[in-house]
Design brief:
alpha/beta; 380 residues; 7-stranded mixed sheet; 13 helices; globular; 5-stranded mixed sheet; 35% helix; binds pyridoxal-5'-phosphate
């Protein structure tokens, strides 16, 4: 199956052996009857497995060209499960420009359990190798990065990971498998905040992992069941439904994203626009190689880097809603320094370019003319 067919049918054979419903049934149950101890139909207890969640996990594996999918209660719960593969004393080399919540989980929870994180710039992937020691067990990559839209060469990172026998995990939330499939580029684990583009309608919080390797999959399934951060059947259904339109939504997100990025770039009051589709983006060539298109996430900074002016723009927006999150059909605007990335200390934030006047847009799939008119009236 090709990608656009997989979003609808991937891993979804015989979704309802009982009645043949075309859409997956929502098995709203915690437990399953047994004829004798162990005499069940493949499901015992819904923390361990639930038929609706299992269908979602198969769909996730299919669209990421993986073998095993795992669904969690949130993106951070999925990351948490990956980190539980490690032991005290292990080290992680991570992108320094990453989602603030991931940074918080790494530094505020797992550093306390004796895991060491090296946050580094990965725009030049060779830099990763300079930070690897014999204790390094995991490379954590987010690309495009949030909110700087840096691009990291997944193939080059995978080569380094293989050479040193280290796992490579890629947070594929921004790109989605429509644009980029990290397992095909050599990654071991793909992670998603399915809350974003996979769900696609800002109505569910859910996380996902996809792997090819059986041994890693078995360890992760063990952690999923043992730690128990699973998602419910209703939420699994919502993401299954979202995935069915991922390809057409992403196509429009990319078209609208390009138009917005170009509009902002030509605006006299805008200093800089961060979007990997620009030919002068530092890793545009790699983006072109590893991504099908450039997505609908854009960050920009106003001239003079004025905090109050940036806040005024955000407050003036009418169609773009000021809100956390991204990846829904509706356009959202955010202020990383005070919202998504507030958990990163100001000094660290500014080192990587997240200045106080930065605005991040998740460009939705409304009519592009209306989005441009909205930005025009808000920026003035
Ligand atoms: C890139 C990225 N990774 C991970 C997460 C965490 O996902 P969740 O909010 O579903 O826990 C987010 C959430 O904003 C994100 O943007």
């Amino acid at each position: 199956m090709k990608f656009n067919t997989k979003t609808i049918h991937g891993g979804q054979h015989d979704v309802d052996p009982a009645y043949g419903s075309v859409m997956p049934p929502i098995y709203q149950t915690s437990t399953y009857s047994q004829s004798t101890p162990g005499g069940h139909k493949g499901f015992e207890y819904s923390r361990s497995a639930n038929p609706t969640r299992s269908l979602l996990e198969k769909s996730l594996a299919s669209i990421e060209n993986g073998t095993y999918g795992l669904a969690f209660g949130s993106g951070l719960a999925a990351i948490d499960a990956v980190l539980k593969l490690l032991k005290p004393g292990d080290e992680v080399v991570s992108t320094n420009d990453l989602y603030g919540g991931s940074y918080r989980l790494f530094t505020k929870i797992f550093e306390g359990f004796g895991i060491k994180f090296n946050f580094i710039g990965m725009e030049n992937a060779n830099n990763i190798e300079n930070h690897i020691s014999e204790k390094t067990k995991l490379i954590w990559v987010e690309t495009p990065t949030n909110p700087m839209m840096n691009i990291i060469d997944i193939k080059a990172a995978a080569k380094i990971a293989k050479k040193h026998k280290i796992m490579l995990a890629v947070d594929n939330t921004f790109a989605t498998p429509y644009l980029q499939q990290p397992l095909d580029l050599g990654a071991d684990i793909v992670m998603h905040s399915a809350t974003k583009y996979l769900g696609g309608h800002s109505d569910v919080v859910l996380g996902a992992l996809v792997v090819k390797n059986k041994e890693i999959a078995e360890k992760l399934y063990f952690i999923q069941n043992a730690s128990g951060a699973v998602c419910g059947p209703q939420d699994s259904f919502l993401v299954l439904r979202g995935i069915k339109t991922l390809h057409i939504r992403m196509q429009r997100h990319c078209e609208n994203g390009k138009a917005v990025a170009e509009y902002l770039r030509n605006h006299p009051k805008i200093e800089k626009v961060y979007w990997p589709g620009f030919e002068d983006h530092p890793n545009h060539k790699i983006a072109k190689e590893q991504m099908k298109d450039f997505g609908g996430m854009i960050s920009f900074v106003t001239k003079g880097n004025n905090y109050d002016e940036a806040i005024k723009i955000i407050e003036n927006l009418k169609i773009f809603t000021l809100a956390e999150s991204l990846g829904g059909v509706e356009s959202l605007a955010g202020h990383p320094a005070s919202m998504t990335h507030a958990s990163i200390p100001k000094e660290e934030r500014e080192k990587i370019g997240i200045v106080d006047s930065m605005i991040r847009l998740s460009v939705g799939i409304e009519d592009i003319d209306d989005l441009i008119v909205d930005l025009k009236q808000a920026i003035g």
